[in-house]
Amino acid sequence: MLKxxxxxxxxxxxxxxxxxxxxxxKDIFLFKNGIYGFENLKEFIITSLPYEDTPKxxxxxxxxxxxxxxxxxxxxxxxxxxASIIDAVDLETHLLSKNLxxxxxxxxxxxxxxxxxxxxxxxxxxxxxxxxxxxTQEGWQFILDSPAYNVKHYVV
Length: 156
Description:
The protein has a single domain, classed as BH3618-like. The protein contains two helices and eleven strands; from the N terminus they run αββββββαβββββ. The protein has helices at 4-7, 88-97; strands at residues 12-16, 19-23, 28-30, 43-48, 58-63, 70-76, 106-116, 119-124, 130-133, 138-141, 153-154. Strands 3, 4, 5, 6, 7, 8, 9, 10 and 11 form a nine-stranded antiparallel beta sheet that branches. It has a two-stranded antiparallel sheet with strand order 1-2. The longest helix has 10 residues, at 88-97. 22% of the residues are buried.
C-alpha cells in the first residue's frame, strides 16, 4: 500500500465529457451528503479545466464514479469585512455547523454557460455554494436561504 504522500504524487486520468482529466489522490473530496440533485454520488475530483485559456479560478467538479457528471465551478473569495458575491455572515451558520472557519475553506459556485440571442452568457449559482476543506478532503453544498442569492446570477 502506498503512503498518502506518495500516492498524491501519482497522476491518474479519467475520461469525461470534458476530455481526459488528470488528478491526484489529494484532488478527491468526499461529500457525505452528495451534492443537490446527485445525493447518491459522494466522491468528486477537483481538477483544472483541460483548456489552456481557462482562468485559474475555474475548475472541474467531476464525479469519480459517474463519468458524464462534470460541473464547471468558479472559486470565489468571500471577504469577512466587505462586499463579496456571497456575504460571509450568510455562510457563518453553515460553517459553524460543520466546525469550519472561513479561512480554512475554499468556496466555489456552480457555473453555467448559456447562448442567449447569439450572445454567450455565464451565470453562477450563488444560492448553493460548494465548500471544500482541503485539509480533510471533505466537501459540502449549502443552501443559502435568502432572496439575495440566485440560481442564475449573471457574471457575463
